[in-house]
Amino acid sequence: MNQQAKYARRHIAARAGLYFGAILAALICAAPFLWSMVTAFKQNRDLYNPENNPFRYNRPATSDHVLYLFDNTSFTTFAWNTLWVGVLVVVITLSLGLPAAYALARLDRPWAGWFGVAIFLVYLVPPSLLFLSLSRLVVGVGLQDSTWSLVLIYPTITIPVSIWLLIGFLKAVPKDIEEQAMVDGFSRLAAFWRAVVPLTFPGIVAVVVFAFTLTASEFIYALAFVSPTTEKVLSTGVPTELVRGDVFFWQSLQAATVLAAIPIAIVFNVFLDRFIAGFTQGAVKG
User: Fold this and answer.
1) What's this model's pTM, rounded to 2 decimal places?
2) What stretches pass through the bilayer (predicted)?
């Protein structure tokens, strides 16, 4: 009986330690976001006093800075531009990246692996070295100072790494699944679409989230190719309108950060269960 009691106490202590560590890690990771959320509603006198606690309201909260973001800037225009550019870039990335990754994952050639590495190395080239040459391309097709220039350019940075990510997921799918589907009468394309794509859903979700967040946060290309206010995206529109010389509209900047992050976090959490389940589903029956 004493042994059982000791085991129960150890089990409870271990579970408590695990939950405590998980909660502590979550709070540490969420601290910057929570700080931004609190800061967005702070008064100037509260924010600029170094003796005040940055994580609490030392003076009454105010929504003036959040309203300023909507009433005195083109934040909604920036958000809309970011949304449709991100969606189009995701569609282009999947349309080109998924077939390319499938071909490289299934090619029985000695150079297939090295070719995949070469594609990934393209992603590592800094944008600061490419935007000058790409600007000639943008001008050549007549898309300067247009948001469509970002739709043209952003896939050059999302497709290489997306192919690299998808290759790993596709290699984890046994070839027997496609072969069985083709034995049942499907073409290779139909077998790929109906048998392979559902099993690579975690990779597709990862690519969607990665490609969208990458386009939403990219700064150099958006700054170099787009200058009209009506064509800007969040990454360039918010700082150019809320940072004026040595004047920072700090609370409004933090409000913009929170408002831009929340939709992405919601979408990711909606697919989180499918993301996790995808790793444990799908197997070849013997």
Assistant:
1) 0.80
2) 12-35, 83-104, 111-132, 152-170, 191-214, 248-272
Question: What are the domain boundaries of the chain?
Answer: 2-62, 67-277
Amino acid identity, position 26: A
Q: Is 245 helix (H, G, I), strand (E, B) or coil?
A: coil
Q: How many residues does the chain have?
A: 286
Encoded amino acid at 85, one letter:
V
Which residues have a Cβ under 8 Å from the Cβ of 232 and sit 6 or more positions away?
74, 77, 78, 81, 147, 222, 226, 240
Any residues with CB less than 8 A from the CB of 234 and at least 6 apart, and which? 75, 78, 79, 81, 82, 216, 256, 260
Give 93-112 pLDDT, tens digit per residue.
Answer: 999 989 888 888 877 777 76
The Cα–Cα gap between 215 and 226 comes to: 14
Residue 120 C-beta-side C-alpha neighbours within 13 Å? 14
CB 162 within 8 A of CB 223: no
Distance CA 145, CA 150 (A): 10
Interval 151-167: pLDDT, tens: 999 998 898 888 888 88
End-to-end Cα spacing for the chain: 46
Q: Are 143 and 152 in contact (CB under 8 A)?
A: yes
Give residue 88's identity as a one-letter amino acid code: L
